[in-house]
Write a structure and sequence with these properties.
The chain is of the alpha+beta class and 328 residues long. Helices cover 21% and strands 26% of the residues. Strand 10 (165-173) and strand 11 (176-184) form a beta hairpin. It is globular, with a radius of gyration of 18 Å.
Length: 328
């Protein structure tokens, strides 16, 4: 059996591609499953930006998808899905409908319209380029693709926030692999559930190297900034090589949200549109206990969040965890 690389691509049948735009910190990431994978989704938070999520409900017709897109650029970024569809069509992938194949590409966006030229955002060309860059090797993590402009700890304003990013993780138990890829752009702080330590979040002030601990600050009576809905959002994909149906995939996605709750506080706020997709490639050729699959999905989601923070690179006025070192 292959060695794990702590990445979504440890699930056979999946590849991941990033495209990071020049001119501003933004980009998109695509998970390709061109032969088709059973999919589900769980959308939480008060301000989601999504595409093709209704068709993933178990009662609806379509069984398999051909890619999942995670993108920056807020709702504008959904344009990138058109480029993913074009790449899949060019390579002969999609649902056969008469004389044409129609690729199925659900997508979710995060808000990264904070700085720079806000006209620079992922479009169809970016989505196509992400597909062209897709690899089955371990993909890059940190400030790339959908994580390029991500930030965390925005409860008291972007000027006190820190850099987020995109990260991955995987586990294999009893011959079944479960993995995650998560773009972390949360309103809340991020902690490492392994020891409870706070690793990124709202700082005490715009120039501070110390964290405010958002929950403690609120308990002391500090009132959060009035942010507009949709100005955050953590999005991601959990996947397994087990055989699952659509209902089981939806449950897998639901349990994976527990991984976000373990390491992001607060999570699923009115300002976040937290969305997790679930994929089952079936390449292991066997079913598995859904309680096991869901528990592993929760664990790899939490680990992917932590990895995203550790690999992030800071921007002007938006330091990364590595920039603050031991000052947290």
């Amino acid at each position: 059996m292959s060695v794990l690389h702590d990445a979504l691509t440890d699930v056979a049948g999946l590849s991941v591609g990033h495209f990071t735009l020049a001119g501003r910190a933004t980009g998109c990431s695509v998970v390709l499953c061109p032969e088709g994978a059973v999919a589900g989704v769980d959308v939480r938070g008060g301000a989601p930006g999504t595409r093709e999520t209704d068709l993933l409900q178990p009662e609806n017709l379509i069984e398999r998808v051909h890619a999942i897109l995670l993108t920056g650029g807020s709702a504008f970024g959904l344009d990138a899905a058109g480029g993913v569809m074009r790449w899949l069509e060019e390579h002969g992938h999609g649902v056969e409908v008469g004389r044409i194949r129609v690729p199925i590409v659900p997508a979710a966006v995060l808000f990264d319209l904070w700085q720079g030229d806000l006209k620079v955002r992922p479009d169809a060309a970016a989505g196509h380029a992400a597909c062209a860059a897709a690899t089955r090797d371990k993909p890059a993590e940190g400030s790339v693709g959908a994580g390029a402009g991500a930030a965390v700890g925005k409860l008291f304003g972007i000027e006190r926030a820190m850099k987020g990013g995109i990260g991955g993780a995987s586990l294999r138990v009893a011959g079944i692999t479960v993995a995650a890829l998560v773009a972390v752009n949360a309103t809340g702080d991020v902690m490492d559930p392994a020891d409870g330590s706070l690793i990124a979040g709202a700082r005490s002030g715009p120039d501070s190297r110390h964290l405010a601990h958002s929950l403690r600050a609120m308990l002391r009576g500090e009132i959060p900034t009035r942010l507009q809905a949709g100005m955050a959002t953590t999005i991601g994909v959990v996947a397994t090589d087990a055989v699952l149906d659509k209902a089981a995939c939806r449950k897998m996605a639901s349990m994976a949200h527990d991984g976000l709750a373990r390491c992001i506080n607060p999570v699923h706020t009115p300002y976040d549109g937290d969305t997790l997709f679930a994929l089952a490639t079936g390449t292991a050729g066997r079913t598995a206990n859904l309680a096991l699959i869901g528990s592993l999905a929760s664990e790899v989601t939490a680990r992917a969040v932590v990895s995203a923070i550790h690999h992030a690179t800071g921007l002007p006025g938006l330091p990364a965890a590595r920039d603050l070192g031991g000052a947290l």
